[in-house]
Structure to design on (224 residues):
């Protein structure tokens, strides 16, 4: 309902959360009381993906050569240098979610958390749901991950690796610990997420194999 109200106020923020067989697709469980919803935005086509290694784990979106700001769906969030600002989009979305919470029939049990730069709501004083604006990048692969996979490795199979690269990755609008305190473009940068790629790679027997490796690392090297 919060997503629907936000979409009614601002059609560019379309909810990508869908329910299927009693489960929500697009909802990730972070902990028993904390969840994250990735909200995919559209119309990224007029921007170039810039991944030059200057922002660890991040990238920026810059207007394509010769493109005018007015040609973008997100014109008011573009900086003077032509970058699509992650921080500006998140700030606008945060305002819309706060307004939606105030209007909601569930406003007594759903509250906006104002002590964070992220878009988070608290449900029944018990659960925390973070909503993260994102762009899905299909058909491209970050330069920082160009070395993957190494040819000598038996896993993943080349066809599986090719499929994962074609599916691409996500760019998330959220704070990065690696960029805190830096005075560059950290506010405009987007965090690179390989979450969907990881899901593809863990399909089948690979999930049990990875779990076995993690258990071995824990038992041999972690004092928990």
């Amino acid at each position: 309902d919060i997503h629907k109200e936000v979409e009614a106020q601002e059609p560019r923020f379309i909810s990508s959360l869908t329910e299927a067989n009693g489960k929500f697709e697009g909802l990730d469980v972070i902990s028993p009381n904390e969840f994250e919803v990735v909200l995919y935005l559209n119309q990224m086509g007029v921007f170039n993906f810039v991944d030059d290694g200057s922002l660890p784990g991040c990238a920026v979106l810059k207007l394509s050569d010769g493109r005018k700001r007015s040609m973008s769906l997100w014109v008011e969030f573009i900086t003077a240098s032509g970058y699509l600002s992650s921080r500006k989009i998140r700030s606008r979305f945060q305002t819309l979610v706060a307004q939606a919470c105030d209007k909601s029939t569930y406003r007594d049990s759903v509250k906006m958390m104002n002590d964070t730069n992220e878009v988070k709501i608290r449900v029944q004083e018990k659960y925390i749901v973070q909503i993260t604006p994102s762009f899905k990048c299909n058909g491209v692969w970050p330069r920082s991950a160009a070395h993957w996979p190494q040819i000598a490795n038996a896993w993943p199979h080349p066809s599986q690796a090719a499929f994962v690269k074609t599916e691409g990755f996500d760019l998330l609008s959220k704070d990065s610990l690696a960029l805190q305190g830096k005075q560059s473009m950290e506010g405009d940068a987007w965090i690179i997420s390989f979450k969907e790629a990881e899901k593809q790679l863990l399909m089948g027997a690979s999930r049990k194999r990875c779990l076995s490796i993690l258990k071995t690392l824990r038992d041999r090297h972690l004092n928990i």
The helical segments are 2-9, 86-103, 158-167, 195-201, 206-221.
